[in-house]
Amino acid sequence: MSNKTLPTWIDVGVIPLINVCLAFLVSGFVILLIGESPLEAVQYMITGAFGYAEGIGYTLYYSTNFIFTGLAVAVAFHAGLFNIGGEGQAYIGGLGVGLMCMSLDSFMPWWALIPFAIAAGAAFGAAWAFIPAYLQAYRGSHVVITTIMFNFIASALMVYLLVNVLIEPGTMSPQSRVIADAAILPSMKDVFAVFGVNIANSPLNIALFLALICCVLVWLLLWHTRLGYAIRMIGFNEQAAVYSGINTRRTIVITMCISGALAAMVGINEVMGAQGRVLLDYVAGAGFTGIAVSLMGRNHPVGIIIASLLFGALYQGGAELSFEVPSITRDLVVVIQGLVILFCGALSLMIKPTIEKLFMKFFAAKESANV
Amino acid sequence: MLSQDNTSQGTDRSPAIDLRKINKSFGPVKANKNVDLIVAKGSIHGIIGENGAGKSTLMSILYGFYEADSGEIWVNGKLTSIHSSKDAIATGIGMVHQHFMLIDTFTVLENVMLGAEQSSSLKQSKKSARAELQRLSVEFGLAVDPDAITGDLAVGLQQRVEILKALYRGAEILILDEPTGVLTPQEVQQLFDILSALRERGVSVMLITHKLQEIIAITDEVTVMRGGTMVATRETAKTNKEELAELMVGRKVLLEVDKESANPQQVLLEAVNLTLRDSAGVARLDDVSLQVRAGEIVGIAGVSGNGQTELLDVLSGISAVQQGSVVLNGVTIDKDNVLNAKDFRHLSLGHVAEDRHKQGMVTQFSARECAIMGFQDEPEFNGRLLMDNAAVTEHCTNLMQQFDVRPNNPHLKAANFSGGNQQKLCIAREIERQPKVLLVGQPTRGVDIGAIEFIHQQIVSLRDAGNAVLVVSVELEEVMSLCDRILVMFEGRIVGEMAAVDADAQKLGLLMGNAGGDNSATGVAAQ
Predict the structure, then answer these.
(1) Rounded to two decimals, what is the model's pTM?
(2) For residue B205, what are the β-bridge partners?
């Protein structure tokens, strides 16, 4: 039945666009329902996300996290693994980043520290993904179930550590001590200041560049290395991979570890960048949003960047909206985000048959006109 | 139900099926072009054509899976529109699919009535279904135990359940899609007896197949499709295999494999007392020993599912040896020396997988990626860190040229090649390195006649170059014409061996059904 194929530009361009529009349409009705003007709301959201320098900074700062978690989901997805554990892996990864920063921040500045911080974060995130991966590959426990469980375990573990171990002595809030200023990643404001350009202050920092580098690396990994070849083959057809002499179990474990390491880079953006310390729940759902980002971005780095921008804008614009229009609460913004996730993720194929039919009709008409 | 309309048949001469100018395209591909087809009432009408000729599309239109872009469907003289299989059933069309649509854990009765229950009470439904099933069984001579668990039945009986299902829903026109692929020759004969009985009762049968001998054996009329069009309709009595083959392909074809007699040398591949148990502990391979020598083609005949797949998996390193050993080019592989598929390839083994969609290729990959499967770690395709994609593409282009794979485009998705061209690419990949031992599973499954000839020639020339070839095929004709020596497998054991020159379908068929003892091929559960 899969004889019907749409051109790529419709598949990856038009369909997601229509999905986003549908989500906004439904959101509009919801906003109408509570007696506010949807147009006004859209206006607030767009200005909030892109209308001024600080807003753009926040949008890109959120996007940075989503790129990391989106890539994490995508890499696993190419091997046919649904990594729901990005949230926990990012959380634990941030712990690694934080511990490394706190142990070395008195000795070195950020530029010397960052390789260690990345390595520690990646190791922690990978380790957190390794256990579900091992159980999947060698024991057959489904990775979806185990990674969800590991999110809860990560959350409980972090609460324990922050309350009992890492807490700054003499304080009441469960968070670690602040990392030394010199060890914290420069914000974009500082970077631009070097070139004499003055931009507004925001949590946006150079982790954005790391995110873009990761996109290139993931692209190289998946389509230009043997490992990527093996990953994709397992994802499409595991039996064919065995036929080709690929060690599928080992590859599954490696893939999940890479996925966990990518999710852990959220820790670089948050712990070493925006927050400057390890604190409770700093991942704030980015791990789950990564699933929607990856789905919407068709598991391709370029798509993930675009989808991350959209979700970044939704987060930032949504915050702005609930601030400007008091009757649109924070929760309603979550509803809008949820609708976008619903239409772009869960219902991403809903309109495909219709589009296909329309396209066929149009195409057939053109064809017969040519004859 | 088929209420005695024999009386009306005399007056109503309109055909059972009359398709007029059916068109259907998938994107730029025209699967059916102005197809006209008339099936007379109470006849067996064969539809034959290569893969991709449009047979399946046409039947899918008739059964409501697809809607035609244009054209008319007349059933029993009435213009009908069929939007779904429900419509098709309502107009009296039934279909027996190639892969049975049965629920293994249900009883025969439950399968037959599923979706067509007479009452919302299960007990009532079962009662009336049982009576109806009884009536059908008697009327058409289709005896099956209604309380047997479907999964326990032999394949031939399961197919009978499928036919009963269609009749239960009131089918007067029965479409059978490649019905004999999984049957032993004896079961095929039984099926043909059933079809003849159906014909006598006024049921019209459409038989879709690519096997010429079946068309000759059972049909009244035959229609040949090629490239989405009807190229000819013949009265079966007035045609022959050669003419049909020529019509299918559009040129003269060689049905026999042209080869010199074999000159077997030293043993290159040996299986010694191989036993393989599945996770349930059932022996899939039971003490299998065989030898393949340089310069010969050994064939393994058998109904699919009798251990051939498992044998190929063990001999190629996909499954680990559990018991016994494999000796490949002098290297012994057993429990203590486990090698994987890549290691086997390094010992100069080529393996064309039985099922290219499951194992032999990745249909979502581009052709160039498929062309290096199993060789992805070879230095020629790899730089220090990244893969040398240019080399991979060049390799694929070369293979495509040498083995005439069309279209010659290494970047095209593997799924977009026809079955024959996919298979040619798989065979090219494995043969190109001139392996000392080549395993070929179903060399020509889903491959059109034109490509069959080519593939057979390639296998024979590899043999003539002094290599050993082991062929597994469920096509008896292929095993008999391609191979030099034939082994027969049944329930994981090798139950017979003979030289190809001594083999005939009758002898092999008896061994394949293990007619010596078991009754699964012929037995009919008592009513």
Answers:
(1) 0.79
(2) B44, B174
